[in-house]
Amino acid sequence: MDVHEITPCCSPVLAEPLTETDAEELAAAFKVVADPVRLRLLSLIAQAGEICSCDLVAPIGKSQPTISHHMSVLADAGLVHREKRGKWAWYSVAPERLSVLRDALGGVPTPAGRHA
Amino acid sequence: MDVHEITPCCSPVLAEPLTETDAEELAAAFKVVADPVRLRLLSLIAQAGEICSCDLVAPIGKSQPTISHHMSVLADAGLVHREKRGKWAWYSVAPERLSVLRDALGGVPTPAGRHA
DNA sequence: AGTCAATATTGATGTTCGTCAATGTGACGA
DNA sequence: TCGTCACATTGACGAACATCAATATTGACT
Questions:
Q1: Which residues have a Cβ under 8 Å from the Cβ of B82 and sit 6 or more positions away?
Q2: A92 beta carbon < 7 A from strand C?
Q3: For residue A8, is pLDDT > 80?
Q4: B89: three-class secondary structure by DSSP
Q5: Is A9:A100 a contact under the CB 8 Å cutoff?
Q6: Which residue is nearest to nucleotide D9 (CA to C1')?
Q7: N or C: at which end does chain A have fewer Cβ atoms within 10 angstroms?
Q8: Computed over its alpha carbons, how large is the radius of gyration of chain B?
Q9: Could you tell me which chain B residue has the CA closest to the CA of A10?
Q10: Cα A47 to Cα A43: distance, rounded to the nearest angstrom
């Protein structure tokens, strides 16, 4: 499956009416992140900058096929980059892709009062 | 790729290791938004400012119980406010809640220079 | 060649989730 | 009080998904 094309940038959920198709795509994109294992994988990869699958199985505590499956989901969604070097698969995050999701959640330029 | 502007420095997901519990919570939160019907509902409500259930069923094209179910999910997640007035239930969005999700995805509080 | 190590894929299983028909719960008006 | 309208809840069904054991594939090394 190629969930790759998620509408480049501008699907502010709160701004304009979502077509059924746009909603499907956006939902599919969020579904990728809506899993605890994948979130922890993203976290691990981000901190390492670059990491190989062999170092992902143990910290997560799931079987190797399960990790491989989740990494494929993340890679297919474009959230991580996969590079095979020798027998190892090295992963790194694709921040642009995360930004797409973030922007979809409220393209609102921050209500001007939210500074903290 | 034009990643020169990204600065993936400060997102909760990308910044510190997610505990298993934190990952569960975050995933649950994203799961709420990872549904096309709920996204369209959010979109409809946001544009109307305030809207009652009776005006949600037709545009979405699902049964009344289904809409009611999704609205409960959104309300339980705190993404919308529910106010019963007479027989009608009026809904409005809770933007703060969406911000939480957005921040989790790369919490840069809008760099103030990057406007679309 | 042959063997081992790392990762991907297959098949199967249990669970979660979206959906609807039917029914229940209040609220309003005659 | 009775009937109706708006919404919530229940129960059930099917599809999607996360997970693992087993197996396949690919790369490196001798």
A1: B71, B75, B89, B90, B91
A2: no
A3: no
A4: strand
A5: yes
A6: B65
A7: C
A8: 17
A9: B116
A10: 6
- Calculate the angstrom distance between C1' of C21 and CA of B68: 15
List the one residue out of B35, B105, B15 whose CA is nearest residue A99: B105
Q: Which of A3, A40, A74 to mutate to test the interface with B (most CBs of B within 10 A)?
A: A40
Check CB contact under 8 Å for B43 and A17: yes
B68 has a chain A CB within 8 A of its CB: no
User: By C-alpha distance, which of B55, B59, B80, B83 is closest to B70?
Assistant: B80
Residues in chain A, total: 116
d(CA B96, CA A80): 28
Distance separating alpha carbons of residues B76 and B71, to the nearest angstrom: 8
- A9: pLDDT strictly greater than 60: no
Tokens of A50: 């670059």
Amino acid at B81: H
B50 touches chain A (CB under 8 A): no
